[in-house]
Amino acid sequence: MTADEIRTIAVVGAGTMGSQIAYQVALSGYPVHLYSRSNERLTSAVGHCGKLLLKRVEKGKLEQTDCDAAMERVSTTTDLAEACGSADLVIKSVAEDRRLKRDMFSAISEVAPEHAILATNSSTMASSFFADCVRNPARLLNLHFFNPAMVMQLVEVVRGPHTAEDTVTTAMEFARRIGKTPVLVNKEAYGFVANRIAFIAMQEAFKLVEEGVVSMEDADLAVRNGLGWPMGMFELADLVGLDVTENILSQGHYQTGEERWRPTPILTDHVARGELGRKTGRGFYPSR
Fold first, then answer.
1. For residue 279, which of 242, 231, 234, 233 has the smallest C-alpha distance?
2. pLDDT tens column, 182-212
3. How far apart are CA 287 and CA 276, in angstroms?
4. Contact 118, 170 (CB under 8 A)
5. Buried b or exposed e, range 171-187, using 16+ CB within 10 angstroms
6. What is the pLDDT of residues 225-276, one digit of tens each?
7. Can you give the pTM of this predicted structure?
8. Which residues contact 191 (CB under 8 A, 6 or more apart)?
9. Which domains does the chain have, with CATH numbers?
C-alpha cells in the first residue's frame, strides 16, 4: 500500500492522545473513525478537541471553515467493526497495558481489511509484542506521536523485524502528509529515540539530587540554561505525571534488565504519597 491509497483512518482509543491524533489527521483532509468503548469518552473527546480548534480560530491560526470541516470529518462509534471495517490505516492508542493491547490488536485484526496498515502509538511497547496477534504482521509497526499530538511535530516510525519495507515507507509519507516530522527508527529499542534520551537524562538528574550533588531547582536551572532545553527534568516529570514517569522507567527496567532504568526513591516516594505532578496539584514542585 502507498500513501496515495490511504483514504480512511481509524483511531482506536479516544483518550488525550487518541482524540488529538484523530483531529490532527482530520485537519489534513482525511475522514476519521474514532472508536472508544465509552460514549462518554467520545463525547468528551469531541468537546475537548473542538475547544482546541476554536482557540486556533480565535487566534487567527485556523480558518473557521477549516475548523468546521475537520470537525465534520471525525465520526465516533463504540462499534470496533464500524470503526475499522473500511480503514486503510488503523492507529491504536489505548492504555499502556500489554494484555489490553494484545486483545485489542487481535480484535482489530479480525475486522480491519487485509490491506490496512496497523499501527500502535505505544511509547513503551514495540510492535513485536503484538505481532502474533495480527494476521500478516508485515503491515504492523509503531507510529509514535508525542503529547500533545496536535502540537508536537515529531512522529517516530519504528520498524519491527516483521515490518515490510513498503509499510515503513508509507507510514513515513503519511506522517508528512498530516503535517508531522517523522524519524525512522530502524531497530526496536526501549524508549525508541526521544524518550530514551529524555528519560535517561531524567534519571541522571534524579540521582544527582539524591546524592546531594545539586539541588532540584539548580538541576533544572542547569538543564534550561546550560543545555537550552525548555524545561528541567523535574519540571518535565511533573508535566508528564510522576506515576506515568515511574511506569515508563519500570517498563524500561523490566524489558532491558538494565539498572539505569530502575525508578529511584526520589520518584517512587512522591508516587506513594499520591503527589503525581501537575494533575494532582503537587509533585516535585507545587503546581503554579
1. 242
2. 999 999 999 999 999 999 999 999 999 999 9
3. 11
4. no
5. bbebbeebebebeebee
6. 999 999 999 999 998 899 989 999 999 999 999 999 999 999 999 999 999 9
7. 0.91
8. 123, 124, 197, 199, 200, 248, 252
9. 3-185 (3.40.50.720), 194-279 (1.10.1040.10)
